[in-house]
Specification:
Helices cover 70% and strands 2% of the residues. It is mainly α. It has a two-stranded antiparallel sheet with strand order 1-2.
């Protein structure tokens, strides 16, 4: 899709304006957002993403529109999965709820910058080295296998505690939070607060998340504008979604497996595409492999949407049945609750 420079500039300016609006209208004054507020703004950003996709559909055609929606759905699902880790990091750092919005918004800003860099690098590499599609495909197969094995168990407790120790050793910090300030004076010395540590932890995590999300969307489209906007709109509204479904996350027990299926599917699609543009001399003599099927974007979009829907419904149904049997969503016995003293 041929996108003029002024459209790029207007799109980036619009995304930055939304981040600034988010900060001044919601985050600047610390508070815990209620369900109604979170639901409204989550729906607003989802509606905005869909509206933008309709614009691509109208001005870019069906192929471009399908690629955008497939990419946005995939990135949105991966973002929801990332919320598990954010939740654990927030708990590990004991971040007061009224300050969590600021941490998440900073995380979104860092993720946008990191993914912008990765996208620029990815486009450059793809244009010059077609064999990278094989590499991306292999990476997605490995990520799918890892995701299927771990499910929603991100093993973050040990990792986060180690991260906290390293950060505290490198960055001198206060023991307690001082509002949402990043620094505070203690005994005449200027120290950083745990607020900075948690922002660094979220930022580093966002960079790692980009390593699986960028190859995934490049498996659906190589259009830089679509890759960037699908990523951006999947991240916008992530803060509100965090507060909306925080209590629901533990019930999405099959989301990890659903994402594994999606990543493996995109991996297959990437390998087939690599065969079509093959230039490696030790594969088919460096010639394109014509028999490899091209998976149409309508099929990719349908497959991704159906997989997310099945994983979500199955998770909610099974976790509800387990809850009725007195088990946790993962099937483990619930810890007995001590009776109130009479």
């Amino acid at each position: 899709m041929d996108v003029p420079l002024f459209v790029w500039l207007l799109t980036i300016a619009g995304i930055l304006a939304l981040l600034v609006f988010d900060f001044y209208s919601h985050v600047r004054t610390p508070h815990v957002p209620h369900i109604k507020e979170s639901a409204f703004w989550s729906a607003f950003y989802v509606g905005l993403a869909i509206l933008f996709g309709v614009g691509i559909l109208v001005f870019g055609g069906g192929q471009a529109g399908g690629e955008y929606f497939a990419g946005w759905l995939t990135e949105k699902a991966l973002s929801v999965d990332n919320l598990f880790v954010f939740l654990i990091i927030m708990s590990s750092f004991a971040v007061p709820k009224e300050f969590q919005q600021k941490v998440l918004l900073v995380g979104v800003a860092i993720a946008l910058v990191a993914r912008g860099v990765f996208i620029a690098l990815g486009v450059t590499i793809i244009e010059n080295f077609s064999w990278v599609f094989y590499l991306f495909g292999a990476l997605l197969f490995w990520l799918a296998w890892s995701q299927a094995r771990s499910g929603n168990d991100h093993g973050a407790e040990e990792g986060d505690s180690r991260l906290i120790r390293v950060l505290r050793r490198v960055i001198p910090t206060t023991d307690d939070y001082h509002g949402d300030k990043l620094t505070a004076k203690v005994d005449g010395k200027r120290l950083f607060t745990p607020m900075l540590l948690v922002m660094v932890a979220i930022g580093l995590t966002d960079v790692l998340f980009a390593l699986d999300s960028i190859p995934a969307i490049f498996g659906l489209t190589q259009d830089a504008f679509i890759v960037f906007t699908a990523n951006a709109f999947s991240l916008l509204g992530l803060r509100q979604l965090y507060f909306l479904i925080a209590g629901l996350l533990e019930r999405l027990i099959y989301l990890g497996q659903g994402l594994a299926v999606i990543l493996a599917f995109i991996g297959v699609k990437l390998v087939f595409h690599a065969m079509h543009v093959n230039e490696l001399p030790f594969i088919n003599g460096g010639e394109h492999i014509e028999w490899a099927p091209e998976i149409p974007i309508w099929f990719s979009l349908s497959f991704i949407a159906l997989t997310i829907a099945v994983a979500t419904v199955a998770s909610l149904v099974v976790s509800k049945k387990r809850q009725e049997r007195g088990l946790t969503p993962t099937g483990e016995p619930r810890e007995p609750v001590e009776a109130d003293a009479k």
